[in-house]
Known about the structure:
- By secondary structure, the chain is of the alpha+beta class.
- Helix content is 27%, strand content 22%.
- The protein has a single domain, classed as 3-Layer(aba) Sandwich (Cytidine Deaminase, domain 2).
- It has a 6-stranded mixed beta sheet.
Amino acid sequence: MKKVRFCDLSPLYQKLVIDACNVRENAYAPYSHYKVGAALLSEKGNIYSGCNVETVTYSQTTHAERVAINNMVTHGERKIVALCCVSGEKASPPCAECRQVIWEFCCDNSHTEIIGVNSDKSQIEIYEIGEIYPLPFGPEELIF
């Protein structure tokens, strides 16, 4: 993990951060009040975003990272190059469930970058998916 400042990010990564911050405002989190926004860069150079959508049962809550990935898949793409998630007061990586879904769509590239950002962009941390998800579960584990 490396800590960086917003001004040190490439223009493309700055756009991911801005898009994730903007979509975070649309999050539906009336129970936890924990709003998250995500934006990803696809292999074709497109940016797809998403926000979390809570339900009272929590188990049916959709995480922002998965909404962004579903948005990418809906548009016919399948590969993540980089993903940014913006949460609350602290920059943090995606949850374990989202890491699995990210792994599915980074196509075995353990160097795919994940950018964790806090809501005011004062904390930015860049991880590689292989760093935060070192033992992924993949198709090879489905051998019977």
